[in-house]
User: Fold this.
Amino acid sequence: MSQDAGQGGQECANPLFLKWIGEWYDEACARNTRMQHVLKKAYTSLQRYPLRMEDPREALQLQGIGQVIVERLTKKLAAWRQENGIPAPQQQTQTQTAGDAEGTLASQGARRQRQTAPRIYVPRYRSGAFALLLGL
Assistant:
């Protein structure tokens, strides 16, 4: 991918992530694994994404980037921050997390209210179950 990085004349909003995915793609091509296709798709979708990402978990919304790639990016970013002496950003506080949890419970409750009442089973005409009911 290193030769593709300079093409197009446009800057990527996430050059560090793009560089790492490109390195993984080159390794996968050298080993001739199936992962190269996934990494190629992840590379192109990340290259086209115009917004800057502070956390690799934000990349889950992109096509071709799944949980495995996000975990690899998270580990690589933590190692890079430690290597360069950059502190990690603060995690969410517990009060924010508790508030978010209440919101998700409320939305789940709303889903349960919308469920319809269970229907009575009526077998279809000319089916085996219908024949059994007629025989009784």
Notes: The radius of gyration is 25 Å. Helices lie at 15-31, 35-48, 67-84, 94-113, 128-135.
